[in-house]
Every structure is written in C-alpha cells, then in structure tokens.
C-alpha cells in the first residue's frame, strides 16, 4: 500500500477526531454552564433506564475528577467506555489500513459477553431502581 494513501487517511481521521473533541468540549461547556441537557429518548418513551443512562453525567464528573460520583450514575460506565474506545480503535485501524470504517474483530466472544452483561444490567437496574 502506498505510504501517501496511509498518510492521507491518518490526516482525515485526525481531523475527524479533532472535530469530535471540539464538539465534545462545546457540549460539555453548554451542559455545565447553562444546565441544558437532552433527555434520554428511551427513558422518556418507556420510563425505563437503558444500559447507558447516566453516562453523560458520569463523563461530566470524570472531567471534574469526581470518579466515585461518576460511577454512581452508571456502575457499568467503565465497561461501556472501554468497549466504545475499543470499537473506535479497531474501526480506525481498519480505516487506515483498508479505507473502510469496519469493525473487524477476531474476538466475537467478547462482543457477546458485553451484550449479555449490558442486557443483564438493563434488567437489574430497572428491577432494583438503580
């Protein structure tokens, strides 16, 4: 593969991440300084907490170095964050090498485990009201 093609893909990916970081910072500032937030559509429609409910508040608290408080919003936030970063890393690697954002993974058992754990968390947190 041509070195110039890889450099161009890395540049595009870097630009994509830079725009994402800027959007993240803007959203953080809007939420923290105005109190504006978007409600979880799943929670609004069903009254149930999805496996990701509380993650926005958790991220805000992590940025403010309030790690235990962040964990109290969603106990599985660290697992979810790790898994999302893993997806992002593998997809980015695929884009750099193949030019396509694909999740090519040789560990489908991990994906199944994460899905099962999130499903169980959904059930448990709604039964216990966590």
Explained architecture:
With 130 residues, this protein is mostly helical. 75% of the residues lie in helices and 0% in strands. The protein is built from six helices and no strands. Helix 1 (3-34) runs antiparallel to helix 5 (77-98) and helix 3 (55-63) packs antiparallel against helix 4. The radius of gyration is 18 Å and the shape is globular.
Average of the residue pLDDT scores: 89
Q: Which structural class should the secondary elements be placed in? A: mainly alpha
Radius of gyration: 18 Å
Terminal Cα separation, in Å? 51 Å
The low-confidence runs, each spanning 5 or more residues with pLDDT under 50, are none
Our estimate of the beta-strand percent is: under 5%
What characterizes the major β-sheet?
none
Considering the chains and any ligands shown, give keywords for the structure.
mainly alpha, 75% helix, 130 residues, globular
Task: Detail the topology: elements first, then pairings.
Blueprint: H1 3-34, H2 41-46, H3 55-63, H4 67-73, H5 77-98, H6 108-128
Helix pairs in contact: 1-5, 3-4
Summarize the entry for a quick read.
The chain is an all-alpha fold and 130 residues long. It has 6 helices and no strands.
